[in-house]
């Protein structure tokens, strides 16, 4: 296939977030039953490593488009991130 992957590009109808960005936020909205379940879902559904997933997620937390798309999830994760930074 020629050209950029549409899953990685912005979607004007969804506030400019890519399909992958929206999928990352959707995974974060879910509850996970036990250790490893989320990481397994990241690999199966998104086809990326958990490390890459968390890199993308961290960047999304600073993206105003992500906040507009899913304010509850983004604000919750920002609080968690801030608490972890304060504990260091």
What does this protein look like?
The chain has 88 residues and is an all-alpha fold. Helices cover 64% and strands 0% of the residues. It has helices at residues 19-29, 37-46, 50-61, 64-69, 71-87. The radius of gyration is 14 Å and the shape is globular. The N and C termini lie far apart (45 Å).
In short:
The protein is mainly alpha-helical and 88 residues long.
Keywords:
globular; mainly alpha; about 90 residues
List the helices and strands and how they pair.
Blueprint: H1 19-29, H2 37-46, H3 50-61, H4 64-69, H5 71-87
Helix pairs in contact: 1-2
Q: What's the end-to-end separation, in Å?
A: 45 Å
Secondary structure tally, helices: 5
Order of helices and strands: HHHHH
Strand % is: under 5%
Structural class estimated from helices and strands: mainly alpha
Q: Would you report the number of β strands?
A: 0
């Amino acid at each position: 296939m020629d050209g950029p992957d549409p899953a990685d590009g912005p979607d004007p109808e969804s506030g400019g977030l890519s399909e992958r960005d929206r999928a990352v936020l959707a995974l974060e909205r879910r509850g996970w039953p036990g250790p490893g379940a989320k990481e397994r879902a990241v690999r199966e559904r998104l086809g990326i490593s958990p490390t890459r997933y968390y890199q993308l997620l961290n960047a999304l937390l600073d993206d105003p488009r992500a906040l507009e798309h899913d304010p509850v999830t983004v604000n919750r994760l920002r609080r968690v991130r801030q608490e972890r930074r304060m504990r260091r």
